[in-house]
Amino acid sequence: MLKHNSILNLDTDERMHIGTYLLEQINDYMTHIRGVRVSPELSVDEVAEYVRRISFEHPVSAREAIYHILEGLRQYQVHTPHPRYFGLYNPRPNFMGIMADTITAAFNPQLAAWSHAPVAVEIENYVLKEIASKFGYSAEAADGTFTTGGAEANLTAVLTALVHYFPSYAKEGLRSLPTHPVMYASAESHHSLVKAARSCGLGTDSLRIITTDSEMHIDVPALHHQIQVDRAAGYTPFLIIATGGTTGAGAIDPINEIANLAEREQLWLHVDAAYGGASVFAPEMLDLLHGIDRADSITFDAHKWMSVPMGAGIYITRHKDILHRTFSITADYMPKEGVDLDVIDPFTHSIQWSRRFIGLKVYLSLVTAGWEGYRSMVQHQTEMGNRLRRELACSNWKVVNDTILPVVCFTDFNIQSKIQSNFASFICQEILRSGQAWISVYEINKVPVLRACITNYDSTEEDIMVLMELLNGARAEYLKRHPNGLS
Amino acid sequence: MLKHNSILNLDTDERMHIGTYLLEQINDYMTHIRGVRVSPELSVDEVAEYVRRISFEHPVSAREAIYHILEGLRQYQVHTPHPRYFGLYNPRPNFMGIMADTITAAFNPQLAAWSHAPVAVEIENYVLKEIASKFGYSAEAADGTFTTGGAEANLTAVLTALVHYFPSYAKEGLRSLPTHPVMYASAESHHSLVKAARSCGLGTDSLRIITTDSEMHIDVPALHHQIQVDRAAGYTPFLIIATGGTTGAGAIDPINEIANLAEREQLWLHVDAAYGGASVFAPEMLDLLHGIDRADSITFDAHKWMSVPMGAGIYITRHKDILHRTFSITADYMPKEGVDLDVIDPFTHSIQWSRRFIGLKVYLSLVTAGWEGYRSMVQHQTEMGNRLRRELACSNWKVVNDTILPVVCFTDFNIQSKIQSNFASFICQEILRSGQAWISVYEINKVPVLRACITNYDSTEEDIMVLMELLNGARAEYLKRHPNGLS
């Protein structure tokens, strides 16, 4: 019979042995990532069978288990750390971020009470204040919380805005209100807002989806009009969500203009800058989010453009007491050592209770790369995006979105004119099948186009050129098969 | 000027160098943990100053940064991995769990779409089904999702129960309902339910707090009565939450009896077994949670008694379609490769959207320790709890809670009779000041008592004896200072 301590309680040599083996494997993965297929073959049965190959009734050695997992991940995942993963906003995690998650797991600090993990809480506070300052908030007024990601940060925004406008929401709930609250976001905003509308009890009908203009920005006159319509119909508008870098096309809503409207209409303004927020790290891009300092709250995901491992979401607000009013609870079983100290227990400021030390990967990345390192990274990726646009133009592809963020949506001009709706999906499948790169399909004005985004600090001009070759090759193949496909 | 790639993009030698240094440090921490003070001195300014010693304007080397963090954590956190941390349900993380979080950070799989991380999704499905089976659910019917922790799992339970009884909740919200929903939990239940009541729009008034009996179990007749009162007043009861191992005293509600009531009253039964759920791994303890297979949903935290790093919460239900009905959304930007496959995209089943690969630490622990390893661990900790009870009795302390879980609440019988309310807090402070162990104070029937819980697979009889010496010493000191303190 296995003793409980035979594996749960490894001795020091075993830990070094296993840890070194894993470190070598991870290092090898990061070093030779360009030799790995970016996207896997998708066979449901094969993957499920692979996973179930080891039974919990018949445990295996640590080394065997690690080998099994690493082989599984190598074969069966999209390799987001690959420099030719031109995909959603999933970065190649930087090594210090990986080390931070290892430290977090080993020291396992409990971020509920300040007194339980003072250094962890203070590190998170420090990082939050610094990032708030980058967004133009005063460090004194700013408050915030780390979240699992943008979805939790956006839900936090909806809840804080509700409590701000309807103080009885927390105790008496929505049914006690004399009026029906409604909120606003664009058709290009992140769908986590739809989830937030459900989870907070308002229901998705209370989220008014505002149309966008030709460049996929929220249509401010349409937004204004909808607010009037709702007021006239007896609803109570309380929240506008602007997006600073949409998921699809990297569009940035005119934040300052929306801030003017929100001010006039006395609404809470939340800016979902989960991805695009990092542009404030590059001084020459600061104007992109002009007006964000006027937002009541902001979502920013460090696990996107800051290249730390998932999930490191951030919610920031300039209303110092609102998180407390929304989430504060006392509980008998919580440690009392901090009661007389002038500190905030994290569980009184978030949807979560006990949680991981999320902020360490951001801190450890910042203390080694510095703001200057991030400025340089943001600039590099922006340049790579511009390079991709130039190469696409040279090869007769047409970029169809307008953003300076490295998110590029494109199609073939001639083919598009005949609305060959299967063209984008054919090209995308060809790229994925090659295993050499990952791009996706996104619909703009109901036309499917191709989408490639620079998410990796290690993507180079050579990687862009490989993508171009693949794209041009796939298009040639398409034209061979559809000789009448040109306009 | 630093180049972006000088630190974000380390070369292979640097990664090995940094990684090995960290591995040695973590191994050293785990090996020599008994020599570390369990609880830190709490000086807010000192901690804040330590954290701000490195500025993001003046980055430091990777080695310096890691040294700084590790020193900070060593000095300024409660060491939950310490074998004499007799605290809240924060375990010493097992080494395979730490390795799992490192792998997760390095491979950074994105758990939103199945097609993006098939092996990760299938691993989570496998673990969920296996754990559901342990709770007596049929593997076919069971569905679930990993969460950050119990708070998110409990909120998920409230949301699924709402959607089950009020299908219009998701779209039209609470204000559209012809009736006011109310739910029930005991006074000893976890306060995350209070947060859940706020976050879902019902408001905390809708959570009826039911009194407990002398052993801190929910008072079933009182529960039944409150349901009748609410129905008579026009409210609509929809959910009972039973607790399988309360945070304070490890009390287990009579689940089967509550299941009978829930069935008669046609209410959703959720069991919060965040900590106590692991007792099903030890066959001789199975009866403790008798009836849990009848629950509509269950919360279980692998980062508690399964000794994996935080946060690894689990929500399980036997209603196969309810997560889908609660959270399913389609979004244009999500990968489409999985559309024709018979798979479930995780983001359609949870509050979160993209998220970390939470399940790996549970899988990697289970494939190496096996169910047998966990059985043995649960037994070991239960034995240590019993040992502590015996030693307390021998030294004339009185255990005041009744549970077979290793959660021991106690006081001095003679002193308690005079209701010396500062006694418990004095003893607790003495223990914490010693740096040799960590216990806490918890109020039972408004009397503060001491609470010690075995959360660590490495706590031994010697550790129990050290705690006893500290307790007896602190009591002697108290009596010296309060010579008339005895009854």
UniProtKB/TrEMBL annotation, chains A, B:
<comment type="similarity">
    <text>Belongs to the group II decarboxylase family.</text>
</comment>
<dbReference type="InterPro" id="IPR021115">
    <property type="entry name" value="Pyridoxal-P_BS"/>
</dbReference>
<dbReference type="GO" id="GO:0004058">
    <property type="term" value="F:aromatic-L-amino-acid decarboxylase activity"/>
</dbReference>
<dbReference type="GO" id="GO:0030170">
    <property type="term" value="F:pyridoxal phosphate binding"/>
</dbReference>
<dbReference type="GO" id="GO:0005737">
    <property type="term" value="C:cytoplasm"/>
</dbReference>
<dbReference type="InterPro" id="IPR002129">
    <property type="entry name" value="PyrdxlP-dep_de-COase"/>
</dbReference>
<keyword id="KW-0663">Pyridoxal phosphate</keyword>
<dbReference type="Pfam" id="PF00282">
    <property type="entry name" value="Pyridoxal_deC"/>
</dbReference>
<dbReference type="InterPro" id="IPR015421">
    <property type="entry name" value="PyrdxlP-dep_Trfase_major"/>
</dbReference>
<dbReference type="InterPro" id="IPR015424">
    <property type="entry name" value="PyrdxlP-dep_Trfase"/>
</dbReference>
<keyword id="KW-0456">Lyase</keyword>
<keyword id="KW-0210">Decarboxylase</keyword>
<dbReference type="GO" id="GO:0019752">
    <property type="term" value="P:carboxylic acid metabolic process"/>
</dbReference>
<feature type="modified residue" description="N6-(pyridoxal phosphate)lysine">
    <location>
        <position position="304"/>
    </location>
</feature>
<protein>
    <submittedName>
        <fullName>Pyridoxal-dependent decarboxylase</fullName>
    </submittedName>
</protein>
